[in-house]
Please model this.
Amino acid sequence: MSKTSQPGPGLTYAAAGVDLDKYDSFIRTIGPMIRRTHGPRVIDNPGGFAGLFRLDYNEQLFKRNYKNPVLVACTDGVGTKLKLAQELRIYDTVGIDLVAMSVNDLIVQGAEPLFFLDYIAIHAVDKARDAALLEGIAKGCEMSGAALLGGETAEMGDLYKPGEFDLAGFAVGVVELHRATDPLRVHPGDIVLGLASDGVHSNGYSLVRKIIEHASLDLTKTYPELDPERTLGEVLLEPTRLYAAPIVRLQRSYRVKKVISGMAHITGGGLADNLARVLPDKVDAELVKGSWDIPPVFGFLQKHGRVDDAEMDRVFNMGVGYCIIVRPTFAASVTRRLERLGERVFQIGRIVEGGGKVRMVDA
Model:
């Protein structure tokens, strides 16, 4: 009679690719960076399954209450810009990108950011990398005036290769109903102001990466015609500019007069497609060629990829990351206020009668 073999050790979650002890250890380290984004609206909820955030109601606690508040929410990711971050092992900037992509959309509606939540999907916990990702997210929230209310870090070794990760985010803001952006307020004669971008931001990176491959460019090399002090990789990982703080402060400067007719965050689709989204059917936007500065990175990419002008304009922001349409009599004062808040502002066009289109015109 044969002897029955003894069973081996049982399977564990760690053996399946998820180390709960390592995960718990990482989670315990991120509390301070999250808490520094919290203001008096955040209710402490240790061990909670969700974040708690109070709307204004206590006059002794808050400076003002909302009379007719409307919540505004949006979600976004960073796209294939993450592939460059993974290749270069630079992780502290894409978290800022993540916040910016949602918050910059949110403020278009006239809202102020309230809170942000993140979702990080990874192969396995890497404390240094994941802390850098969270640090960037927290910094983006601080710069935007949003509380980092919570998030999720998901280990999925079966879906992601070692070193790979993905980011997604969700932002919530609030606006007084009568102050919310309304495209019907855009009229002929209004002026289009463009706020400078900080480069490529977070759109078009599938084309950027194809150009790098096609032209055999080195991400770790400096190119004098681009930036003599930063590598190509560092230039391309420059985070998306956050426009929330200056736009919110600008709107608070005009509490009675509605000087802003419309706004647009310039993302995929470029100036034309995104600005057209905020135009009513009876007007056009005429943008003047050469009325704003185009950062060197776009000429560099265009040359090395032999990309035509129309494709560049359709894919990239080309130097304008955000647009504000204002009443003509307030264009100068709005420009001055934004410049005092650190923005570079260009008067790039005007609104005329038409059919809801954006077109480029000669100066």
